[in-house]
Write the structure tokens for this entry.
Amino acid sequence: MLKKIAKKTLNVLVIALFALSVLLLAAAVFGRISGSGEIFGFQVYNVISGSMEPQIRVNDVVVVRRTDFSQIAEDDVIVFDLPNISHPVTHRVIELTDTGFITHGDANAQNVTENVPFESVRGKVVLKVPYLGHLKSFLDSTAGFLVLIFIPLATIIALETVSLVKKYREYRDEEVQKDIDRLEEEKRRLEGNQHLAGADSGGKDIEGSAAEAPAADDTEYGSQN
């Protein structure tokens, strides 16, 4: 029972790993080709500052969806660009204006805000994954990209190898069983032949004895005469 549960759990983990690898690979490839890192309207960012702690910490990963400005409200967390900062910024919207949003980092002083125009907004944060930033940074590198390609290929090769080994074992077992069946059939045939040979030999002995009996009788009657 435990063996079956362990086997099913392993199969689920392998499938989940394969699916995750394919999705990450698709996102990485599409991002490199498009240059924007966006796939189906979503982008993934690694948080590198603590301005949104404790809700969003350094090395958390946030998934950002491109959203119409009219769908962004106060208290939403958005990602945007600033002219004096080289990387995207993640802050909370505290006020809406005619030209954009006023944002504030949860961990920043109350008087530190940013006036963000609509055109600088990349999207709204829809998901946070804790502690995944190190992995994302690695996957964004050339080495990580190669590993991301290798994982699905290695998984496919492993699954195909297991399948081939299983099929070979089944074929081997079938051939062995066929050989056993042939040997048993040959054994039954030989035993049948031996039985028939024994029956023929017994019949000849009886006939010979019966043929000699009259001669003995003739001799006896002859002596009386």
Confidence is low (pLDDT under 50) at residues 221-225. Residues 2-159 form a domain with the Umud Fragment, subunit A fold (CATH 2.10.109.10). The beta strands are 42-46, 61-65, 77-80, 89-96, 100-104, 114-117, 121-129. The chain is about 55% helix and 20% strand.
